[in-house]
Amino acid sequence: MCDARDEAPDALFFCQLLLPIHDATKHTIDDDPRKPCCPHAAECTEVHAITELKTRGSGVGHSFKETSPAEILHWDGMLVFDGVSGGSHGGMLRRFDRSRPDNSCCNRHISDCMAASRWLEIKRSIKLNNNLTAFERGEDGHNPTCECDCTFDVVVHNTNALTSKAGLDLFGDESTWLFGGWGDAGSGVIKNNLEKPGGSKGGQTVLVADVDRI
Description:
single chain, about 210 residues, alpha+beta, three-stranded antiparallel sheet, about 10% strand, globular
């Protein structure tokens, strides 16, 4: 799949396949086996803005304008453009600065997508899980990765749902990374002694593909 104008890969097509922008459980073709992503993120963001941040409907501070699956997609896409441009390393707002013509950090795809203030509003409230229904730490059923595993769960599920056949010969590669965030000791989320310089805890990301698709 590519753009007919310049034959560039149609990234949105594959994003829609694996991370559906619409609610695949309601507004879709019959028997669509995929899990939705952007609608879930938009819903959880709304709940967080109302209950946790108390920035909407409380009469205190600034109100939070209702977000949407399409806006969540735009917000994610802006991060992708930032990374493709070399990464801002904490200076994301430089991508919006069009006041100086010599600002090489400005990215028009980002600055035209939404205002910097709106990007920050969503950044403060975006969530991938509903804290009102999640089990607390120490309770039966608690998932230490519940705030972060939605994207991985959706991508893996939808890839399996869309795969008609796969080769028997596979190849893979892994990348080890340091981490010091969520996950209690013994939860299995993070591992010790990975022999990674500069840290003692971390994990691994593994990519696997068919040999005949290289």
